[in-house]
Every structure is written in structure tokens, then in C-alpha cells.
């Protein structure tokens, strides 16, 4: 079954760091862009970052640029999101999703991992 499984969320203080992971299964991982998308409590979906198939090209939302880093390990079918200097506004459910092209065609989503930034 084609699926994505996120992990690594938790409670962190403002200014802290977390690394999220997303493991892909039952599809050819290297054929797809990978994305991170988040949903804060009571708000809509916000696209966060994506990475191309080789891992050499990345793109970020302005709200996380300079603080978050997306990467992928194609040998492990895994995409990561390193989150540094976290702020309370980063509190959200974080999803990974595969895409057929840059920031588009998101068709398979994980169930999400919750990140809470609070003192």
C-alpha cells in the first residue's frame, strides 16, 4: 500500500529544534518531489517546503526560510525537515506529501506529526 509515515514531532521550547522524518513505502520514491505542509490549530493548510527528486533543489515558504531545512535520503526512502529557532507560530500538525512536480500535484499524504512550541 502506497503510504507516507511521519515521525519526530513533540513539545519544544521557543528557540529550540526538532527534526521530522517521513518514510515512504510502496512507490518509487525517486520519481517524486516531496513536500512538507502544516496546519496550525483552527487554520488552513500552509505549504512549508519542497525538494526535488535528486535533492539538489529546495524551496521554502517565506515564514520558515532560514530556519527550516528540507532534505532527503533516497537510499532510505526518507524525507526530513530540520526545524531550528522554532517559534510559537510553528505549532501545527505537519504532513509530508508527495508531488508530481514542484509545489504541485500533491496526491499522497501522511497522517501527520504534531509539533507544539511552547514554554
Average pLDDT for all residues? 96
In quaternary terms, these chains amount to single chain
Q: Residue share in helices? A: under 10%
Order of helices and strands: EEEEEEEEEEE
Q: What distance separates the N and C termini? A: 39 Å
Note the beta-strand portion. Answer: over 45%
Shape: globular
Roughly how many Å is the radius of gyration? 13 Å
> Major beta sheet, specifics?
7 strands, mixed
DSSP, total strands: 11
Uncertain stretches: none
Please count the helical segments.
0
Short structural summary:
The protein has 119 residues and is mainly beta. The protein has strands at 3-7, 10-12, 18-25, 33-39, 45-51, 58-60, 68-73, 78-83, 92-99, 108-109, 113-117.
Structural account:
This protein is mostly beta strands. It is 0% helix and 50% strand. The protein has strands at residues 3-7, 10-12, 18-25, 33-39, 45-51, 58-60, 68-73, 78-83, 92-99, 108-109, 113-117. A hairpin with a 5-residue loop joins strand 4 and strand 5 (45-51).
Amino acid at each position: 500500500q502506497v503510504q507516507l509515515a511521519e515521525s519526530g514531532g513533540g513539545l519544544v521550547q521557543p528557540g529550540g529544534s526538532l527534526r521530522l522524518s517521513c518514510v515512504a513505502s510502496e512507490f518509487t520514491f525517486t520519481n517524486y518531489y516531496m513536500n512538507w505542509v502544516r496546519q496550525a490549530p483552527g487554520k488552513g493548510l500552509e505549504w512549508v517546503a519542497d525538494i526535488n527528486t535528486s535533492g539538489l533543489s529546495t524551496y521554502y515558504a517565506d515564514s520558515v526560510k532560514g530556519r527550516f531545512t528540507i532534505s532527503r535520503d533516497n537510499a532510505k526512502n526518507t524525507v526530513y525537515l530540520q526545524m531550528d529557532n522554532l517559534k510559537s507560530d510553528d505549532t501545527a500538525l505537519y504532513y509530508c506529501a508527495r508531488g508530481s512536480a514542484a509545489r504541485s500535484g500533491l496526491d499522497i499524504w501522511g497522517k501527520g506529526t504534531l509539533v507544539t512550541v511552547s514554554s
